[in-house]
Here is the input.
Amino acid sequence: MNLSYLIRRLGAVVVVMAIVTVAVFVITNVLPGNAALMILGENSTPENLAALERQLGLDRPLLVQYFDWVSGILQGDFGMSLRLGLPVAQVVGSAFINSMWLAGIALAGVTLISIPLGALAAIKRGTKYDTIIGVFSYVGTALPEFVTATILLVLFASPGNTIFPAGGFVEPKEDFLAFLNHAVLPVATLGLVLMAHISRQVRSEMSEVLSSDYVRAARLKGLSERRVIWRHTLPNSLAPAVAVISLNIGYLLGGIIVVEEIFAWPGLGRLLIYALQNRDLPVIQAITLVLAVVYALSNLISDLVIAKLDPRVRYA
Amino acid sequence: MSFLTIKRRHVLMGLAATTALPSLSFAQSSGPVAGGTLKISHSTRIATLNPFILSGPAEYPCIDMIYSRLTRIGFDSQPQPDLAESWEASPDATEFTFFLRAGVTFHDGSPLTADDVVATYEAILNPDIPSAATSVLDMIVSVEAVDDLTVRFTLAAPFADLPYSTAHSNACIVSRAALDDLTALETVANGTGPFKLETYDSARIVRMVKNEDYFVEGRPYLDAVEMMLFPDLAAETANFLSGTTDVMLTVQQADYERIAASAGIEAQRVNSGRYVCVVMRQDAEPWNDVRVRKALAKAVDRELLVAIILEGLGRPANDSIVAPELEYATEKPEITYDPEGARALLAEAGYPDGINLTLVASDRPAIRSQMAIVIQQTAAAAGFNLEIQTMPHDTYLANAWMKAPFYIGYWGMQPTIDATYNLLLTSEASYQDTEWKNAEFDALINAGRSTTDEAERVRIYAEAQALELEDTPYIVPFFEDVLTASSTETKSWQVAPISRYFYIENVWLDR
Here is the structure.
């Protein structure tokens, strides 16, 4: 691990960003219609449409639109949302923070629960603990978010039995407890799927390590079982778990799109769906950029963590 | 106006409540109480508050609260005074004078004058400023301020219905100063309506608070109104039924019965002129032959469509876009499902072995594709082999709408018969998508505009409707009811059949 490696990785991220924005721009413009048509809908007379396109700058040649946008980005100006009439930085910024709350809580919760769960399943291989955790994992993996979400809604938010609110959002700085209360169901939905992935991964890694030669050697040495697990097994099974968690961040970013829509959570996912439906190109571009950066950075961070956990891993 | 309120409760629960709390309902029957926050749930985003172009179902109530117009359509579907206290027309209906209320102020405290009205109308008529109301106001040649409280409109041609047009939901009066920054109009609002915009968070909530200086004495009753967005219907319904919200702006047909049957809920079903129609472009085969259109009309089972698609919450229509609620609407003869008759007509038109066609439907709202599928099934018996092409709404708007030969349209109710026909059917209509152009019909609609003689207008519009029925430019299978629901604590919640006017200043909470 050295500085030049880090710079190369970050350089690759920038190149990926550039490719992503060109791809998004081209694909969005290949689709029929544009933001002006979506705003006016069936209220659009040719005159109205032309006037609105002029107002939004959609009458300019595509190349000009793209390079104007790029030069804006380079100066830190993400432009205005075509549909919402607000600065993109403001719209996407607040949605990003809301999504990070959701994803962050889900990821932290899942990590804290699924690693011990996976470890327990591995240590108690073949027992009823293992079976229960296994069934739970399979069910969690098999159910898509929209099904899990609906089940949770029926169980915990049906009228007459409202344990948690059935969606909505409260600013954490307004009322933190109410915010957490509103976050329970969306976080649980995201968490159930992730938890299944991660705990299964930890279980299989750990089982492998537990039957490895050096663990046998450690046991033969007369070390206590606790020490075998904490000192020799767990750290060696964690590196793959970190890799799985970082892979799952991609999954998580996909998951928030569904979960935010169902629970009316004003985050990036919902904004993205809305922007796509309305051809709000500056917003689509900004969200894609943000998601790509998050994904690339989380991969980078997980590589660094793995290198830390496993001294044999070296990046150059 | 036909207006139906359904109130259903579990009989046993009702009995139990009566025994336990004998006179609760009487104790609460006193007059309106001021105060409280009304929470209205909706499922479509409020993307803009720009009064000139917005068209979202949840955006209309917002501008109805924040802004005023010169006139406003009442629950009786007639124009009522709003900013204009009264108005008068010249005998030939080419000049209208509106007299404004004195002492009206905008939310920022500045006074409303005739100059603001002039500036607003000039903006609406300006081709560089997109505006949804232009199509009903484009006969205006000039707008002038006679004095601070009097505005005179001069029209290019007689137009007796101008007070309906000035009530157009997008003809909100803004101040001259506000027109300097059209982008700002999307997110900030300075109106003269009963509520002032406080919070605008498009992703979540729009909150409006009482305008203490509203020009109607003693209104509004509420301290605040919150429009809360729930993109997921299940979550919206759960919040409404558990009492988190007071009003569910729009109830889906599939949920109506369940919601109406819930305790403490009052569901409303308002007959409306909203309709889904089948567009048949008549400048090419086969739709240029009226017999093919009539054949399809007979091959559509209207009763079945109302039962399946609207869950019974609507009324069969008979191929006229004029709703029974509109003034001058005539009784239309019933078109019954007759696949044999349809097949015979089709054979007569030169298709003895049936006809293969592609019917296009947008995926939003879902009613369009549902309609296409049911028509495909009922029309098959008459020899129409329809292939359904469902497409995303954006693709539909860009590629099919106003272009395709055969597709499903969906329109809201217009305030007058003139506006209804000028939207779609006259040769110069804003959205002429049938190419049904009939000089006789155009002449009738023009004659109807230019006279204020009631008997004459009755005759003219009856003839126009007869022409429409004779030629079947559109298939109109039903009129859809507007469905909304409120908690029983919410008093005077009403939606006009045209569902653009809400009069929320009259709503109060009995808590």
Remarks:
- The longest strand of chain A covers residues 157-158.
- Chain A is about 75% helix and 0% strand.
